[in-house]
Write a structure and sequence with these properties.
heterodimer, A: 212 residues, 9 helices, B: mainly alpha, MetI-like fold
């Protein structure tokens, strides 16, 4: 196993890097998109609320793989040629943004209504009250669930292997099929995933306990 | 141009529906098995049995934090090295069950934690054994609280079965790939049909969970 690891060190690290990069990019963009749709779900305008709801329900109830493969196959057909990494990261972003929207919306709803009313009565408009009063409190509440979303995101980034996204899973498959040492390769791949996911999920559990 | 009419011929639609049936079959079998195994694991982890609970806890945390895809690969390509070679559908069910059991175990454990400790203490004071108190008093209350979490776990299990296409399990995603593999002009129609089928099943379940939750509350 040590030999397998040292012989293929650069491939493992390469895959680890792409996995990490894809997860961080997807997290960043899905936080922005997810928060936007979360706000859409609570605005006074009924039409916007429906738009937000439809987006969240659609992408929460379709498998990530279907979304990712769709972007991988359809965008090159009509728009521009993109590689597997980009298609995979777009798929991850859209899928995760729906979950983040749900999480952030729950956070916004758990902020006392009085906060919004007080801010409005001080002369702030809806957006200002949202931005300066409600959202900062909501985000504090949703940090542990968002952390768990990030853990899911890292795990889900393994779908990049389907679209040749150079990620850890993809490299692991390539190594496994070259060396025929499937068991040890997958054990090493698993260890690399755990390096990212275990500390985050333990830290989030600790935060949950502390906040509760 | 995408060819919607030919893509939606009855032969193709029937083929996709057959895939959907396998998807549902795998999901239901896996969810039943992982509900049972997950309950046992969750109770063991909660019960603080010396050593055993710690070890079970570590195993649960490790498996929970791995990608399901890796577990599918491990079961299908790794286990044959130990002399056990499952067929594609059993391999998918085994991998899903291993992964989902740990997810459900965590849900069960937090459900039990949410039941007031007084319930257990009172039952013990009435002379019940730990197992009796767990089975008759604590678990029924815990399961009631867990229904939404369990249903949403079931929904993600259904979505996750699509990953089994990598070991050529004949489920919906795999059948979709076969259909759009015939003709690039089928890609968008087939994706729309697949997405719709997954959506209908998952959304129906999420509505059901909301209804049950409202009735219970």
């Amino acid at each position: 196993m040590i030999n397998l690891l040292t012989n293929n060190w650069s491939a493992f690290i390469n895959g680890f890097g792409w996995t990490l990069l894809s997860s961080v990019l997807a997290l960043f963009f899905s936080l922005i998109i997810g928060s936007l749709f979360a706000i859409l779900e609570v605005v006074p305008n009924k039409f916007l609320r429906i738009v937000g709801n439809v987006y969240v329900e659609i992408f929460r109830n379709i498998p990530l793989l279907v979304i990712t493969m769709f972007f991988y196959l359809v965008i090159p057909l009509y728009v521009v040629k993109i590689n597997g990494f980009t298609a995979g990261t777009i798929g991850l972003t859209i899928y995760t943004s729906a979950f983040i929207a749900e999480t952030v919306r729950a956070g916004i709803n758990s902020v006392d209504v009085g906060q919004m009313e007080a801010a409005r009565s001080q002369g702030m408009n809806f957006w200002k009250a949202m931005r300066y009063i409600v959202l900062p409190q909501a985000f504090k509440l949703v940090i542990p669930p968002l952390g768990n979303q990030f853990v899911n995101l890292v795990k889900n980034s393994s779908v990049l292997a389907f679209v040749a996204g150079f990620d850890l899973m993809y490299q692991g498959n390539a190594i496994a099929s070259q060396t025929f040492d499937t068991v040890n390769t997958y054990l090493i791949v698993g260890a690399f995933y755990l390096i990212i996911t275990l500390p985050i999920s333990y830290y989030m559990r600790y935060l949950e306990k502390k906040l509760a | 141009m995408q060819n919607w009419i030919d893509a939606y011929s009855w032969i193709n639609i029937r083929f996709l529906l057959q895939g959907l049936w396998i998807t549902i079959l795998i999901s239901v079998i896996s969810v039943i098995l992982s509900f049972i195994i997950g309950s046992v694991l969750g109770i063991i982890r909660y019960s603080k049995i010396p050593y055993v609970s710690k070890i079970v806890g570590v195993i649960i945390d490790i498996i929970r934090n791995l990608p399901l895809l890796l577990i599918i690969f491990f079961v299908y390509f790794g286990l044959p090295e130990f002399g056990f070679k499952p067929d594609t559908i059993p391999a998918a069910i085994l991998a899903m069950t291993v992964f989902e059991s740990t997810m459900i175990a965590e849900i069960i454990r937090s459900g039990i934690l949410a039941v007031n400790v007084g319930q257990m203490e009172a039952s013990r004071a009435m002379g019940m054994k730990y197992i009796q108190a767990m089975w008759h008093i604590v678990l029924p209350q815990a399961y009631k609280k867990m229904i939404p979490a369990l249903v949403s776990q079931f929904i993600s299990l259904i979505k996750d079965t699509s990953l089994a296409t990598i070991i050529v399990v004949p489920e919906l995603m795999q059948h979709g790939q076969v259909v759009y593999g015939q003709d690039p002009n089928y890609i968008i129609p087939v994706f729309v049909a697949m997405a719709l089928m997954y959506f209908v099943v998952c959304y129906a379940l999420s509505i059901l969970s909301k209804v049950i939750d409202r009735k219970m509350a």
